[in-house]
Write a structure and sequence with these properties.
Number of strands of chain A: 6
Largest interface: A-B, 60 and 82 residues
Helix content of chain B: 40-55%
Strand content of chain B: 15-25%
Radius of gyration of chain B: 34 Å
Largest sheet of chain A: 5 strands, mixed, barrel
Shape of chain B: globular
Shape of chain A: elongated
Structural class of chain B: alpha+beta
CATH architecture of the domain at 28-116 in chain A: Beta Barrel
Radius of gyration of chain A: 21 Å
Number of helices of chain A: 3
Distance between the termini of chain B: 68 Å
Oligomer: heterodimer
Number of strands of chain B: 30
CATH topology of the domain at 28-116 in chain A: OB fold (Dihydrolipoamide Acetyltransferase, E2P)
CATH class of the domain at 1-190 in chain B: Mainly Alpha
Structural class of chain A: alpha/beta
Chain lengths: ~130, ~950
């Protein structure tokens, strides 16, 4: 076997693996309308917390269930059941990415969540703009 | 107007120094390019001095608490201990760039000082990099376009504050209270990891630029082999430092942040790992060529060091431009410098790729095409233009690969060291490509956008769903790490480690494989024995076969290299850097894989009864702990003792007790599986009740009341001696929200890692009489909930009988419904019945207090259709007990990870030293 054959074999195998991993792992970032037309399929939904509804978390009932409402980018509002304890700073989040699936009962069941908070390292001069 | 008390002079000096630094870097670049070395040296020394002066001046401003400067005001406050001033310095983007420039200058001065034959080319490239970094600090505005972030910006000059009334007051510094104190560094960054991780990582980033500069210099001079010797120590220096920096980041995440592990495949982590992998591959190709007369794989040897530096720039772009958006937990928000970061990145991509071409006319032609595509960007077709630019660059690279840098050498022998080093490097690069691909998905969406309609058309034509997905350009990186990363990375890593184990024993040119076979046999057997022992000690499932294979491969690599190290040891460490680094690398991955795959979330256990309430609870990873309760958790009993505040931290003291076996005597009564049992003989409880039930317990079908009351819940152990206390904490952080910080108990063979998932940091709010809560919930018959330590169950609903009316103060015409509530605390059970009263057409609110229980109820609504009621429950502070939700994880064998890190770094530096000495002797030989 020539050296280039071994190299070629490895290249082909890795490329196939990469393709499979990309196809099977990548989910789509959609609105609630798509997610709810397809209950049970994993999607990513981005949106913002709806402040008008309270965030429900009662550790004494279930330590890993947080309920809140999310408004997606198209404006649709749905109840979300997040299978985690209440994330710190949820109320102050600017935007939320949910990973999970829609249920036939009408809520979105999220298994994972990422938040964008107003200040990570950089912060604005809110204080001076408003108070002075 | 003269402002009172400002250090305006410092701003002037600082800006002058920044400008001087930029101009001198430009002069240095031009001089070195034109070959005027003595002017170039002077210009660069001026640049380095002014950069150091800028940094010194900012430190002076920090120590002077000069809050009129925005950078100081944002990152310092009066109460912050001065030991965090370093962290504060690089807490913002400006400081980050300055830190990068600092290391870059130090390394460049070393290059100047050594002044080898490559000085002109290398310094020209390094000065150009410095020039671009200098732009990042200019802070000049062209209309609305901002060029750079000025570290000496005064708060009153910040765009957001321009024109505000207070900026017109001469005495604003003294009269406005906000200037008496700064905002302070984000408390998350106030720890010692923040002091050591960024400087190490940035030194690593800066170190990648030296091999880059040598490679470009070689392409420029078209001396494609002479650069290899001097670039080697720099490459291994970069490998060692960047590797240490990345691992420190992991250690920080594990020790001080609550990510629940040390590696999360976060885009920011990935984007520092990828340049490292490419640099490792490149450094190994340099080694191959150093040991050959005829160069081989010249394209890759030159291209990988170039690529490594370009990936560092790409990493900076991803993390600092804000383009990653929500996919990363720790990227910077957009600070308006995206265009210039992009310009920086694309300029060096162009330089790196055009220089690959030999013919100057070809360079011009490809350069012209690249400029034309950038014109598209300027015209507003951003994605299309950049895509065209990248296509031109790829074309240049392909041309160079097939023509300009083609090497006509014979194939290496199959059992030669260089062949397997080459294959290993190739696999590392493939791994790097895969990680970059998955990390860059948010970037791809931007590129897909212009082709949306074309994909839709193609999807309709072919009916392929994939094309529709592409048309939507809304792809999101997967969250299932096994499929997103491990599926490819684990098999690649298995092959890489098998090669690391084998290749160390191979010789350059060719090896008699029979002699090698006997040498690796020992490592082969030792790894198999240990792997078998691990399979016996830990539970692995069938789908984890690749993971076990990786554990085996890392052990094989570690044993094989350790064996090599011992056999080659002649009292001198000189040439043994590589086996040491390989042992370290193998142990790092071994510790990482084993501790992650076998991590045991011991907080899975729940309070006895609660699991029957809700089946979803069975998935829970978090434990609810009432203050004062002692609960079994994994191999321990744990008790939440108290909450206390210490500075900006609220600490939760958790006592851990050894588990001592529980013994039962004949005749003891227990409750298990909802039934009463009596012990048949004296015995010590087994871990599970099932194991004892056959021989040791007698089921009592009809227990008497006295027996039921005497029965205690069956347990397999009791709390013994208090072994240790862990105090996971919550950091009070007004700016970012409170953040949990873990507390970890380190043992030789495992870590116990605990953190608070939910905890109260202040006493709850109550009304004047001490009632708290008042939350309304909907109940059906049979529903239960915990209020404090009391289990509340809706037993039944009944209509109030006529003879009861007088007692309950009801009128004859009232419609009244009683909800029979069972309240249970420990073994005490009591029934209570708050009322729902309708008088005429209105509901009469009826407040019911359960005497002695500290509970109050009010039924607000009854829905006859599904027989549910809405009830508000209040709890009195006198009965309330504090509780926390915590998670505890055991990471087995994690110490191998840290040992591996140390050995790997040590080995890399031995390799640097060896190569430096080798260079010295070879120079003397000339």
């Amino acid at each position: 076997m020539k050296r280039s054959h071994i190299v070629l074999l490895l290249l082909v195998a890795t490329t196939m693996g990469m393709f499979i991993s990309f196809i099977t792992s990548t989910s789509r970032s959609v609105g609630f309308d798509t997610a709810f037309s397809d209950p049970g399929v994993e999607y990513k939904v981005s949106g913002t917390l709806v402040a008008a509804h309270p965030v429900e978390y009662d550790a004494q009932v279930n330590t890993n269930l947080t309920k809140f409402h999310l408004q997606d980018k198209q404006g649709e509002i749905r109840e979300v059941w997040l299978q985690q304890s209440k994330p710190t700073g949820l109320e102050r989040s600017e935007s939320i990415d949910l990973y999970g699936h829609a249920t036939v009962e009408g809520h979105f069941h999220a298994t994972d969540m990422l938040m964008k908070c107003p200040s990570k390292y950089n912060e604005q001069n809110h204080l001076l703009e408003t108070d002075v | 107007m003269e402002y009172i008390g400002e250090w305006l002079w410092a701003a002037h000096i600082g800006r002058a120094l920044v400008a001087l630094g930029f101009v001198s870097a430009m002069v240095a670049t031009v001089s070195f390019v034109r070959g005027d070395i003595s002017l170039g040296r002077k210009a660069f020394q001026t640049h380095a001095l002014s950069t150091f002066a800028v940094i010194a001046l900012i430190f002076v401003l920090f120590f002077g608490h000069r809050y009129e400067f925005q950078y100081i005001w944002k990152h310092l406050n009066n109460e912050m201990p001065m030991r965090f001033v370093l962290s504060a310095f690089w807490g913002g983007q400006e400081g980050g760039f300055l830190l990068w420039m600092f290391w870059h200058n130090v390394l460049a001065l070393l290059v100047l000082w050594r002044a080898d034959g490559w000085q002109r080319e290398v310094m020209a490239i390094l000065s150009a990099i410095e020039m671009f970094l200098g732009v990042m600090l200019l802070g000049v505005y062209f209309g609305d376009f901002q060029l750079g972030l000025d570290p000496f910006l005064l708060v009153r000059q910040a765009p957001a504050n321009l024109g505000l009334p207070w900026t017109a007051r001469a005495d604003y510094l003294t009269s406005i209270p906000q200037f008496a104190d700064g905002q302070g560094l984000n408390p998350l960054l106030q720890n010692y990891w923040m002091t050591i991780h960024p400087p190490t990582l940035f030194l690593g980033f800066a170190a990648t630029s030296v091999p880059f500069a040598y490679a470009i210099g070689a392409l420029w001079r078209r001396d494609l082999t002479g650069w290899i010797q001097p670039a080697l120590p720099w490459s291994f220096f970069g490998v060692g430092i960047l590797g240490a920096g990345i691992l420190m980041g992991g250690a920080w995440a594990y020790e001080a942040l609550s990510f629940g592990g040390f590696w999360a495949w976060d885009p920011v982590e990935n984007s520092s790992l990828v340049p490292w992998m490419v640099l490792v591959a490149g450094a190994h190709l340099l080694l191959i060529n150093k040991n050959r007369k005829e160069p081989t794989a010249l394209f890759s040897t030159l291209y990988l060091p170039v690529l490594s530096f370009l990936l560092v720039l790409y990493s900076t772009f991803l993390t600092k431009s804000g383009i990653l958006g929500d996919t990363s937990v720790h990227s910077f928000v957009d600070s308006g410098i995206l265009p210039q970061l992009l310009a920086y990145l694309l300029s060096f991509v162009a330089l790196g790729h055009l220089m690959l071409l030999q013919n100057v006319d070809h360079r011009k032609a490809f350069g012209g095409l690249a400029l034309a595509s950038l014109a598209l960007v300027a015209a507003g077709f951003h994605a299309l233009g950049i895509l065209a630019f990248l296509a031109v660059m790829a074309a240049a690279a392909i041309r160079a690969f097939r023509r300009d840098l083609k090497t006509q050498t014979e194939d290496d022998a199959l059992w030669s060291r260089e062949f397997w080093m080459f294959v290993g490097s190739l696999l590392l690069v493939l791994g790097a490509i895969h990680i970059t691909w998955q990390t860059s998905i948010p970037v791809f969406n931007h590129f897909l956008a212009p082709f949306s309609s074309a994909f839709t058309w193609a999807a309709e034509l072919t009916g392929w769903d994939v094309l529709n997905t592409l048309a939507q350009h809304d792809m999101a990186p997967g969250t299932d790490l096994d499929r997103t990363y491990h599926l490819v990375q684990v098999p690649l890593a298995v092959l890489i480690f098998l090669m690391i184990g084998l290749t160390q024993w191979l010789k350059y040119k060719n090896t008699d494989i029979r002699t090698v076979r006997s040498k690796v046999l020992r490592a082969y057997i030792a790894a198999a024995v240990i792997t078998a022992a691990l399979l016996w000690a830990y539970d692995f499932e069938w789908h984890e076969v690749p993971r076990v294979a990786l554990i085996y491969a890392t052990l094989f690599a570690a044993f094989s290299n350790a064996d090599y190290f011992v056999q080659m040891w002649k009292g001198k460490l000189d040439a043994l850097g590589s086996p040491l680094a390989h042992v370290g690398f193998a142990l790092t991955i071994f510790g990482a894989v084993l501790s992650t795959a076998q991590k045991d979330i011991i907080s899975l256990n729940r309070i006895g009864d609660i699991s029957t309430l809700n089946e979803e609870l069975n998935n829970n990873t978090d434990l609810l702990m009432m203050q004062g309760d002692t609960l079994p958790m994994g191999p321990y009993f744990v008790s939440y003792r108290e909450r206390r505040q210490d500075g900006i931290h609220v600490l939760f003291d958790m006592d851990y007790f050894e588990r001592t076996p529980k013994s039962y005597a004949q005749g003891d009564l227990v409750l298990a599986e909802g039934m009463v049992w009596q012990a048949l003989e004296d015995h010590v409880a087994s871990p599970l009740f099932d194991q004892d039930v056959e021989d040791r317990w007698n089921f009592l079908p009809f227990p008497t009341k006295a027996q039921t009351q005497r029965a205690t819940r069956w347990v397999n152990g009791t709390a013994g001696e208090c072994a240790f206390t862990l105090s996971p904490r919550i950091q009070l952080n007004a700016r970012m929200g409170n953040a949990p910080e873990p507390d970890t108990r380190h043992f030789l063979t495992r870590d116990l890692y605990t953190h608070i998932k939910w905890g109260r940091v202040t006493p709850p709010e109550t009304d004047e009489e001490g009632w708290l809560g008042g939350q309304s919930s909907s109940f059906a018959v049979g529903d239960s909930m915990f209020v404090g330590g009391v289990l509340l169950t809706i037993d039944s609903l009944r209509v109030i009988r006529d003879e009861e009316r007088a007692d309950r103060g009801l009128l004859d015409d009232d419609l009244a419904l009683a909800a029979c509530l069972g309240l249970r605390r420990g073994r005490t059970v009591e029934m209570h019945d708050p009322l729902y009263i309708v008088r005429g057409n209105t509901v009469v609110p009826d407040l019911y207090e359960a005497e002695g229980w500290g509970l109050r109820f009010r039924i607000d609504a009854f829905n006859p259709a599904d027989e549910t009621l809405d009830m508000v429950v209040w709890e009195h502070e006198s009965v309330r007990r504090d509780f926390v939700v915590m998670q505890a994880v055991i990471f087995p064998q994690i110490n191998w990870l840290w040992i591996g890190c140390i050995l790997m770094t040590l080995g890399s530096f031995l390799a640097v030293r060896f190569r430096l000495r080798q260079r010295k002797t070879s120079r003397r030989g000339h």
